[in-house]
Structures are given as structure tokens and as C-alpha cells.
Write a structure and sequence with these properties.
The protein contains four helices and no strands. The longest helix is centred in the N-terminal third of the chain and has 49 residues. The protein is elongated, with a radius of gyration of 24 Å.
């Protein structure tokens, strides 16, 4: 009987396979929704600009002017809207980058490379930190923010349970 000197190919556990496939589906959904949201921010900006322009045209055609306090409030609202649109586009871009990096990490884990886990963890943590910096305290307010952290933390833990199968 002849013995083979070639090492046995490492077998990916079913649990890790399922996690990777779920991650790919989640990344695809995230890429599509963030891309659509970025496009929508352009439309929101155009609508906001049209409203501001139409308000000015209406004032001119009626021959009225706003009181100083009202005009100041309109200017502040316009500046706030511009900031929100710019921050929203940045947040959605960060979401796209995070999804791509998470996808790379999951492909590495699919190939049983331990480095993929660390890439994936960075992809899950970096967008949260970036949003906290961009949005401040509003990034972590409300039940939606808390719920949106449960799934990534659960996946990091479940991938961590599979580290023993990776090299």
C-alpha cells in the first residue's frame, strides 16, 4: 500500500461556508442600497436647490421680502441641508467601501486564510468609527443604530469561532 506525502487539503466547515455566502449576499445588498442612496442624494440636492430658487423667484414676483430674522433662518436651513447632503454622500461612500472590504475578507476566509478575519473586522469597525466622526452623537442614537450593530457583531463572533480552521 502506497502512502501519499501530499498534505490533505483543508476542508472548509459548513458553518464557515454558510457565513461566507450570507456575507456575500449582505455585501451585494449593501453595495446596491448605498449606491442608490448616493444617487438619491444627488436628486435631493437638486430638489433642495429648486426649492430655494423657486422661493427667491416667488419673492421677487410678488415684490415681497422676508424679514431679516426669517431670511437668516432660511440661510441657516439651507446651509444645514447642504451639510446633511454632503455628509450623507460621504456616509454612503463609506458604506460602499466597507462592503467591498468585507467582501474581500470573506473571500479570504472562504480560502481559509486567517488574515481574512482581520480584514473583515476592520471592514465592520471602520465605517462605524467614520460615521461617529462624521455625524457625532447622532450616529449612535436610537434603536436603529443599536439594531444595526447586532448583526455585524454577531458575524464577527461567528467568524471568530471558525478561526481555528484557518491558517
Amino acid at each position: 500500500m502506497e502512502q501519499s506525502n501530499t498534505p490533505e487539503a483543508a476542508k472548509r466547515p459548513t458553518f464557515l461556508t454558510v457565513l461566507c455566502i450570507l456575507t456575500w449576499v449582505g455585501c451585494a445588498i449593501s453595495l446596491v442600497t448605498n449606491a442608490l442612496a448616493m444617487l438619491a442624494m444627488g436628486a435631493v440636492s437638486a430638489v433642495k436647490d429648486a426649492v430655494v430658487d423657486n422661493a427667491s423667484v416667488l419673492q421677487d414676483s410678488l415684490g415681497v421680502t422676508m424679514a431679516d430674522g426669517a431670511q437668516a433662518k432660511m440661510d441657516v436651513a439651507n446651509a444645514t441641508a447642504n451639510s446633511a447632503i454632503a455628509a450623507g454622500s460621504t456616509v454612503f461612500l463609506i458604506g460602499i467601501i466597507g462592503a467591498v472590504v468585507a467582501l474581500v475578507g470573506s473571500v479570504m476566509m472562504w480560502k481559509l486564510k486567517k488574515m481574512g478575519f482581520y480584514v473583515y473586522v476592520i471592514a465592520e469597525i471602520a465605517p462605524v468609527v467614520a460615521m461617529a466622526v462624521l455625524l457625532g452623537g447622532t450616529a449612535f442614537s436610537g434603536a436603529t443604530a443599536i439594531m444595526s450593530m447586532i448583526l455585524p457583531v454577531a458575524f464577527v463572533v461567528m467568524y471568530g469561532l471558525n478561526l481555528k480552521h484557518m491558517k
